Amino acid sequence: MLLFRLINLVALVGLLGVLTGSLDLQILVGEQPCPLCLLQRSGMIGLAIGPIMNLLWGMRPAHYAISILAAMTGGAASTRQILLHIATPGDPGYGPAVAGFHLYTWAFITFAVGAAGCAALLLFSSQFSLGDTGVLRQKGPMRIATLAVVMWTLVYLVIIAVTVLPECGLGMCPDDPASTGGIKAPVGVLGFLIFTLGSLAIGVLLDRLLPNDEETSATLE
Question: Whole-model pTM?
Fold first, then answer.
């Protein structure tokens, strides 16, 4: 059981790493996301829902199914964007390239790996137990790490939602949004460190405040 929880936690951190890269380009560099980019970010958040539910409330096939559906949706958006740019000879693509690939190509790879990984994990039925209530009621390092990563995900979700409003307003998002110029790197790095450490601190605090199965059993007795 611990092995599968660690796999879900590592996968979740990996997804957040991909989102960190895209938000870094948006906030620090000033590259604003296009409509298809926003759909891919939504797919990343949806892909993260499965591991979050597995960690908090126990391993369930339905949780993996949610991630697979999100990966299919996000993968469709990234595929659409890839085809748009390869259809025109000489098209340099949208946004800067990272390690030779544009972000939408990396997004497609992430969705493909995520869907394949979830499908592979479904083959191991030993992880599914009726008595598995997740780490939400189990005090310890795993619950701290899980809660910290969940808070990290929520912060990114808020950042994505807040940054969409100035770009799109209440109407359609522009196909080719203008660059904002970004902000100074030290400010961005400091902000990243602050909310990362803040997420960890909140995880520790919640671990102390939330009840666990042993305390609940003692209270009932």
Answer: 0.83
